[in-house]
Amino acid sequence: MSNLVSALKEINTSTDTSPLAYRQPYTYQSNVFDNVFNKYKFMDEINDFPCVCVYNVVDSITHSGSNIKYGTLSINIRGYVRSSGDVITDCEKLVDDIEYVVNSFRYRESSRNLCVVDSRVLTLETDEGLFDPFGVINLEVQINYER
């Protein structure tokens, strides 16, 4: 999980031109300023926006014959934004950036050392502007790896 947190900290309005990039070149639309945590935080604990929390990791193992085992990590990611303009647009930008990082996670050098086979976003929810000027996004991510 710490590798995913490190990857999410790279969301900084720069352009990813890595030859291993999922879609290249990709320009991040948000800047998280290293506000990525490997634990859940409530909105009243956050002073700097945007903020991303990675939490609630569930690990399961699947045996598929010939002594091959695959692990599956189910991870929840919650993002918080604050906007003086359109909060829904800012939420969408952060979601796009997180989705890019998750989808390209399996191509990273650090993930190859972990034998990551697949990484993807399974579900996405937003508060749909309910907390305006704040915005909340929730993503469920799945990472498959060979054990």
List keywords for this structure.
single chain, STM4215-like, alpha+beta, five-stranded mixed β-sheet, two-stranded antiparallel ribbon, 147 residues, 3 helices
Describe this structure in words.
By secondary structure, this protein is of the alpha+beta class. It has a single domain, classed as STM4215-like (2-Layer Sandwich), CATH 3.30.2000. It has three helices and seven strands, in the order αβββββααββ. Strands 3-4-5-7-6 form a five-stranded mixed sheet. A two-stranded antiparallel ribbon has the order 1-2. The longest helix has 18 residues, at 87-104. The protein is globular. It starts with a helix and ends with a strand. The mean pLDDT is 91.
